[in-house]
Amino acid sequence: MTTHGGFEPVFCTIVPPHVLDRLAQAEDPALAGPARRTLQRDAYERTQRRLTTVLGATAVPSAADGKPQRTVHDARHGTDLPGHRVRGEGDAPGEDATVNRAYAGLGATFDLFLRAFGRDSIDGNGLPLNATVHYDRDYNNAFWNGEQMVFGDGDGEIFLDFTLPIDVIGHELAHGVTQYTANLTYFGQPGALNESLSDVFGALIKQYTLGQTAAEADWLIGAGLLAPRVTGKALRSMKEPGTAYDDDVLGKDPQPATMDDFVRTGRDNGGVHINSGIPNHAFYLAATALGGPAWERAGQVWYDVLTGGELKEQALFADFATLTVKAARERFGDGEELDAVAKAWEQVGVRTL
User: Fold this and answer.
1) Tens digits of per-residue pLDDT, 231-271?
2) Distance of alpha carbon 171 from alpha carbon 202, whole angstroms
3) Is residue 203 classed as helix, strand or coil in its secondary structure?
4) What angle do CA 353, 4, 199 make, to 5 degrees?
5) CB neighbourhood size of 40 (10 A)
6) Which ranges of the chain does DSSP label H, i.e. alpha helix?
7) How far is it, in rounded angstroms, from Cα 162 to Cα 290?
8) 248, 340, 255: which is closest to 292 by C-alpha?
9) Which residues are the active-site residues?
């Protein structure tokens, strides 16, 4: 496995630990129990991820150039990975909608990166895409473990099936793209950039699949994931960070939209799922200012920075912002793209050097 600057063992989940922590303290055992078990399972998988990194992951052969190689497994509510193979590349859809959604989401992610950016799978070299569904019981998360995707079914009380939002699938697979390129450290501002890039590409995959322009998109991450009893619309909002949910059990979405409200915390790896709202909002502002399909210009600039080799593992928001201004100029010249990118970072309070 080749990564920029060496390998950083990262276990990335779509639901932030602070959300599960809050749920785990609920008085209702139907809410607290699944959250506690999910936190325990996440801690175990995080440890396994570190061990795999130390011992070395199994080499995976590349797929055919320019074509996806997808395999979906069923854990059957167990925790052994990858589980029982239930659908391979080219197989017809089965009766399990969760399996079919996972398969389609893997394909949509592959298509976006190949057609919009010329990238052949997650590693740029045809890496097969593997996923496991029906993981554990009442498991309230989805994750990328450095080698594959894993989806829980949710508890039905707070979270529904984690294959429902296609941007959740894209988000987690995009962590793999970061792993194979800039390899951003998963703590503090570099970690928030890591999370933000996954939100950006998750949103682009959703928009690409739906054929939406930046103006038509909802810019929500995880819309359709929250159960009916939850007062909220998604896990995060790139358009209006801090407004995705306001619920008596989940609490209020803590994401800031600008550096004025940057959250300093030791939890959640230094607030990686919280402060990602700031670069998320910058991307939204740049993309909507430019209009049209967001992957064509703003997305291209962000992709250029992620894969260009200059983004350091310990990059701060200002470092990333500066590189986006440089990338916009190099790809598009001194035009509206450069103006939109520079202004977006100014609006969220991140200075470009």
Assistant:
1) 999 999 999 999 999 999 999 999 999 999 999 999 899 99
2) 4
3) helix
4) 70
5) 11
6) 17-24, 29-55, 97-117, 166-180, 188-210, 268-271, 277-290, 298-307, 317-332, 336-347
7) 32
8) 340
9) 172, 273
CB 34 within 8 A of CB 140: yes
Yes or no: say if 234 and 222 are a contact pair by the CB < 8 Å rule: yes
Which among 273, 290, 294, 154 has a CA at the least distance from the CA of 219?
A: 294
| Greatest Cα-to-Cα distance within the chain, rounded to the nearest angstrom | 58
Report residue 121 as tokens: 């799978």
99 three-class SS: helix
Of the candidates 242, 149, 143, 140, the residue with the CA atom closest to the CA atom of residue 186: 143
Confidence (pLDDT) at 51: 52
* Residue 27 amino acid letter: E
Q: How far apart are CA 18 and CA 24, in angstroms?
A: 10
| Amino acid at the residue 227 | A
> What confidence category does residue 32 fall into, taking pLDDT thresholds of 50, 70 and 90?
very high
Contact 183, 4 (CB under 8 A): yes
In the chain, helix, strand, coil percent, each to 5? 45, 10, 45
Instruction: Tell me, rounded to whole angstroms, the distance of Cα 200 from its chain centroid.
Output: 8
- H helices then E strands: how many in the chain? 10, 10
Nearest to 70 by CA among 148, 175, 164: 148
Whole-number CA gyration radius for the chain: 19
What 3-state DSSP class applies to 176?
helix
- Nearest 5 degrees, angle CA 246-CA 252-CA 253? 105
| Dist. CA 297–CA 280, nearest whole Å | 16
Q: Are the C-beta atoms of 165 and 180 separated by less than 8 Å? A: no
Rounded to whole angstroms, how far apart are CA atoms 121 and 177?
8
Statement: residue 155 has pLDDT above 80: yes
Give the whole-angstrom CA distance, residue 90 versus residue 187. Answer: 39
CB 260: neighbour CB atoms within 10 A? 9
pTM given for the model? 0.94
Q: Residue 188 and residue 199: Cα distance in Å, rounded?
A: 16
Q: Which two tokens stand for residue 62?
A: 């590349």
**How confident is the model at residue 57, as a pLDDT?**
43
